[in-house]
């Protein structure tokens, strides 16, 4: 296959060519999105981003050799996981592209020795992102060997971390903070305060929540339902109960608690529950590519399908 086409949520069409790692971009009406102000070149480079350091964990696609990153307000949003803090974080990289999604190539290596061994000097990364395990001498080697213009030290760059304290519920009407903040527990508190319950559900899809994250979120939901000073409406109470069940099921999936998972599947009689649970099973399954885990989560999915079929026959 020489190229693939991707349709973005905003309606742009991207045509990605693998040979030279370039892409064409077309607007909603088929107009060309040029790569230069003079409108002489239609081809855009697919950026190559390399993480160097011990603390980066990347969730890369296993079905393709490129990733699709979101662009918001002229900023490319690059997710990663901090191995030390066990938290999801983002790097924010400025871009002039007027599209909502950009194809990129992402690679990672633990140290400069591995980078030199694995990556030829002819390869020129567009961005190299480093942590504190990379020394000043290593940076000199990277610059000289690969002629990199953009080296981002993750702890110093001002656009790697959005200050959470600066975001209020009122501001969320202007910006989707699910995309901009790296802390799902913090986001839950913001959304609960504003009663934006649909956005709490979206956290299950937008983030790779840890078991601990999920426990905190379930506690916040419970506290909201039991708050006598600010009682929730009956409609919101039912939604909160459904949210709690979804996070609880996700938590059991992460823990691989077979007994609890089976118990929750057997107790559900609503078609919506089966759809939600299947989505969560497929999400967690994608996070664990090992053959043993794949078989286990496939079994959970089969249990949901069987229960759903039984329910439909009634």
Rg from alpha-carbon coordinates: 22 Å
Q: Spell the H/E element sequence.
A: EEEEEEEEEEHEHEHHHHHHHH
Strand content: 15-25%
- Span between termini: 47 Å
Instruction: Give the overall pLDDT as a whole number.
Output: 84
User: Which secondary-structure class do the elements indicate?
Assistant: alpha+beta
Number of helices: 10
**Helix coverage percent of residues?**
40-55%
What is the domain tally?
2
Apparent shape: globular
Low-pLDDT parts are 157-181
- State the total count of DSSP E strands: 12
Biggest pleated-sheet summary: 8 strands, mixed
Secondary-structure map:
Blueprint (H helix, E strand, L loop, with lengths): L2 E5 L5 E5 L4 E5 L17 E2 L2 E5 L3 E2 L9 E6 L2 E8 L4 E8 L6 E9 L2 H7 L8 E4 L5 H11 L4 E3 L23 H4 L3 H11 L2 H10 L4 H16 L7 H22 L2 H10 L3 H17 L3 H23 L1
Parallel strand pairs: 5-10, 5-11, 11-12
Antiparallel strand pairs: 1-2, 2-3, 3-4, 6-8, 7-8, 7-10, 8-9
């Amino acid at each position: 296959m020489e190229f693939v086409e991707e349709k973005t949520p905003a309606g742009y069409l991207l045509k990605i060519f693998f040979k030279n790692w370039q892409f064409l971009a077309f607007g909603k009406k088929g107009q060309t999105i040029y790569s230069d102000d003079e409108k002489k070149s239609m081809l855009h480079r697919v950026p190559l981003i390399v993480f160097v350091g011990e603390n980066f964990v990347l969730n890369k696609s296993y079905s393709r050799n490129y990733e699709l990153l979101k662009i918001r307000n002229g900023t490319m949003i690059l997710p990663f996981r901090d191995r030390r803090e066990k938290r999801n974080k983002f790097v924010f990289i400025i871009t002039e592209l007027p599209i909502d999604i950009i194809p990129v190539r992402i690679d990672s290596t633990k140290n400069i020795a591995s980078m030199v061994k694995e990556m030829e000097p002819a390869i020129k990364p567009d961005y190299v992102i480093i942590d504190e395990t990379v020394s000043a001498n290593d940076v000199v080697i990277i610059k000289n060997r690969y002629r990199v213009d953009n080296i981002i030290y993750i702890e110093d760059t001002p656009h790697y971390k959005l200050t959470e304290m600066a975001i209020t519920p009122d501001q969320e009407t202007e910006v989707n903070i699910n995309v901009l903040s790296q802390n799902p527990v913090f986001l839950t508190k913001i959304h609960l305060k504003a009663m934006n319950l649909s956005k709490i559900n979206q956290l299950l899809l937008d983030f790779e929540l840890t078991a601990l994250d999920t426990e905190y979120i379930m506690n916040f939901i419970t506290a909201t339902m039991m708050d006598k000073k600010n009682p929730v409406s009956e409609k919101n109470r039912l939604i909160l109960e459904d949210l709690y069940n979804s996070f609880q099921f996700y938590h059991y999936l992460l823990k691989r608690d077979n007994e609890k998972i089976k118990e929750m599947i057997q107790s559900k009689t609503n078609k919506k529950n089966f759809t939600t649970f299947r989505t969560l099973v497929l999400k967690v399954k994608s996070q664990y590519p090992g053959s043993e885990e794949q078989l286990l989560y496939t079994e959970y999915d089969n249990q949901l399908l069987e229960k759903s079929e039984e329910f439909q026959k009634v």
